[in-house]
Structures are given as structure tokens and as C-alpha cells.
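User: Please predict the structure of the protein below. I'd like the answer in C-alpha cell form so I can feed it into my own downstream comparison script.

Assistant: Understood. Taking the following sequence of 484 residues as input:
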Amino acid sequence: MSLVRFLLDGKLIEIDDFDPTRSVLQYLREDLRRVGSKEGCAEGDCGACTVVVAELEGEGLRYRAVNACIQFLPTLDGKALFTVESLKAADGGLHPVQQSMVDHHGSQCGFCTPGFIMSMFALYQHSKTPSRAEIDDALSGNLCRCTGYRPIVDACVHMHEYPEVKPDAQKLIAQLRKLRRERALSLKHRQASYFAPVTIDELAARYHDNPDAQLLAGGTDVGLWVTKQLRELPAIIYLGNVDALRQVKIGADGIEIGAAVTLADAFDALEQHYPEFGEMFRRFASIPVRNAGTLVGNVANGSPIGDSMPALIAVKARVRLRRGADSRELALEELYLDYMKNALQPGEFIEALLVPLPQRDTQVRCYKLSKRYDQDISAVCAAFAMRLDGDAVAEIRIALGGMAAIPKRASLTEAYLLGERWDEPTLVTAMQKLGEDFAPLSDMRASAAYRARTTANLLHRFYLETRPEHALDANAVSVFAVTG
């Protein structure tokens, strides 16, 4: 079938014969003349283009704020789309989130306002009494250059004081059920193709036969290839319609996270078992990026400054790979060979991320250093997992991002620490050993000297929080942003 179908303001939209890499924002502004959504950065950073997508989740609905500028149009298939124009009442009145923004003077030049409104609209659907932390998180992907954030936060605090206005959930659920796709979506436009399978077997067969095709999950990286690098993607295989890949399974062997599970859902599942990662997860990216991007996609990208990989490597995560009918497993650190090079064979993809449940008596920490607290790329991300036998190190794993061409373990430091007493003299030598494990580079985020020194300091901090006697309370020492 070559027809993309989705709902806009409750009405069925059917489109075909378009470039599969056309963004939702381009379609809204250029085709529908819905110009409320703005283009500010075209890379998912400023939030001016934010829209809300609703889709079925179990027997209910899930509303997600996403960046329209990097969301490819065919990924809307089977979903419901809301823009700032969607909030207008039949009598022309404002939605409560809009009225609250007006009453609390949250808009000045107005360019960013539609994006803020849509982030607020998504929050409005999920929480009647959002905490300040929830509000800050919901707005973290929206930048304002003139008004300042206090009146916008005030608008969020008070938006539920107005008469409630929400979409007809049961009607929307019934409409979306009719759009459920039982067969793969296949599009062709000139020399470009887009294929969205509904089963893993279809995905594996298609990719095996077309190994040069681009796999697409959340698009938070791939979208920038198009908007910023102007790359052409002749063949795309989309993972988001494969229900089996959208599952998080928790069993005796650990946590299995499918390749199409969003960052938001994956982080929620992991934080239940590894609360020590919670602060890093909240600083990982904005809500719209976490709502669209996938954890497996982040892992597959393998950026040396990615935050998820050090944490996952420290807790012995593995990946299950699929190529045709064959599958195999690798330790996550074995996936990365060199800068932007991995161990995947042609036509092979990551089917799932496998994360063991926490081990008894193992202490885990993850620290992120960046110039800004929110929504910034790390200068250094360090993760530690250690088990003591009395006052001796029985097992330790140290994984770092930003220190090498790939996410990497500090193997020399680990080897030295194994069996040693966990005390100050051992720590001093271990901090020196880290200098033998890594030869970091200087770049716009930090100098080599800064990275080397702060990494050693983070090991010291880990020691202070985990020493056998008089350990510092980890909750009393917040994860912080540091200027390089």
C-alpha cells in the first residue's frame, strides 16, 4: 500500500507521491499553510516547531510532543497529529493552555510561543497537577529569547484552573484503531523508497536484501542528515511499525529493550532498576527528542560523546543482532571498533538491547560534565559499577565517553583495582592509571587537560560515595554542570 494515512484535528488525511524525507514541518507550512509551527534551528534544539502526536497505547492514548522539523512525514502513518491551530475551539476561543499563557504574559515576540503551547498541551494531557520539576522537564526543549521563562512556567502552573478542554478520547481511539496497519507500508517517489514493515521477519529480510538502505527509528540523528547535511536517502526502512520492536520486557534475565522503544520509555524502564542513572537520563535531551529518538538508535550510532553507552557498558549491557534469519549477541563494548565504525555486518541490525538486572551489592554511578545543565552534549560522561568483598575490590567496570574515539572501558585502571583495598592510597594510583588508559583530545567542549583531570576527579568522587566506611550520601551530591 502506498498511501500514508493519519488524523489531523480528527479528520483523515491521505497522501502519496511525496519525498519520504519531507519533514512534517515542511508539509504543515508549505502544503497546508499551517504556519503556526515555526522553523528555528531545523535540528530539534529550539522547540519552535513542536507538535503533538497521539497514538494508541494499550487500550488508551499516548500524547507526545515531538519536533516537526526532523520528523519525516511518512512516520505519521496510523497516528493523530495536533498543531497549535488544532487547539482553536469551534467558537474561536482559546484552549486553556493558550489562555493561561495570555493571562500570565508568557509571550512577547511570539516566534517561540506555538512550540511552548504544544509542549504545554502535551503536559496538559498527562498531568493535572504537574510539579515544578515536571514543568521544567516538559519545557526543556523550548527556547525563548525575549520573554524569559518565569511567566511561561506560571502559565503551566495555572493552566488547569480553566474549564477543562480535551479531545474526545474514545472517538480518537476508535479512529486510530481503523488506521492500524496489518501489512507493510511501501512508498516510491522518483528514485526514493520508503518501507515500513510490521514484523521483524519482514524487516530482517528487507534489510538483508538491501543492506545499503538507511534504517530509520526516531529520526533524531537521521533527520539532521537531511536538514543540515542535505543528504539524500534513496532507500529508507522504518522500524517504528514493528510492534515486537516497541516492547520493553523485564524478566529474570534482565531488561530487554526493543529497537523501536523510545528514549523516554527505555529510560523509564531502566530508572526503575537503576535509579542512579535518573539524573543523567533527565539531562540526556529534551522531552521532544526523548519522545522520538530510540535508545537502540543512540547505541547503534555509537557517538564517542553519547551519554547512554558508558552507563550501559558499566552494567554489562549486551546487544542482540539480527541478519536475515540469524542472530547473535555481543557485549556492548565489543560493538564499537573505531570512530563511527562498528562490528555490524552488511544487512545486520540491532534487534534489542539486553541489560542485566542490578547485581547484589554492586554500587553504580553515572556522572555527566557539560557546560549547560540541560540539553547539552557532554564533555565527559563517566560510569562506574563496583562490587566490594569486605574492603577489597571484587569486581569493577569503568566506562567513559568523550575520552576516546569510541565509548571505552578503562581496562588498565580496572585491572589495577581488581583485588586491591578500596582506600585512599589505591585511589591515588588508580587516578594516575586513568592517564594511561586514555589520551583525550581538545575540542570546543573541553581541553584534553580538563578531560583528563575531571575524569580522575570523578573516580575520586565515586570513591567518596562508595568507600567502605563513612561513604558520602550520593543523593546529597547532585550531578552538576561544569564549565570547561
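That's the full C-alpha cell string. The first helix runs from residue 24 to 31.
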